[in-house]
Fold:
Amino acid sequence: MRAATEAIETVADHSPVTSLVKQWRTVFMGVMVLGVLAVLLVCVWSPKLPSLQGSIPVGGTTLPGALGPAATCRHTGAGGDGDQCVIAGGDALLSGGISGGRDLTFVDQVVSAGRASDELRRWRSDGSTVVADGAVFVAISPSWAIRYADIGSGVRIETGSFVSSSAARTFLLRSGLLR
Structure:
């Protein structure tokens, strides 16, 4: 009886079905190993993701468009009412020399409706070129700085100067401030 059981086990170990199961198990394990290697290679050699440091500045506003990932911001202090932000001169948003190779600084604030309407009145009267005037107000100042106000959220942004009015418009499009 023992010899018969050993003979059946031997035949079962060498049957085409058992052999096929072992082959598929080996293939599955090989695919799993390749998957793990692929994930490791992607993690090691992929470009680093942009910093999210600027996307939610210390002051609590969320910067619109592509400004968040590109900017580094710090709150202006206990008496301050906004954030001072910087986009590095080498950032893709400033490529083509639109800031003259310099870092671009800007102030980001959340203002009340009354203060926002006062600012818009001042911006309209000081010779700024109005680019958009609706739910979002966008203008380019005489010194080629950008003035941005989202009427609904109260977010107000005022940048440093660009090298030209055309450069300021390019930044507006790249950054997503102009929709």
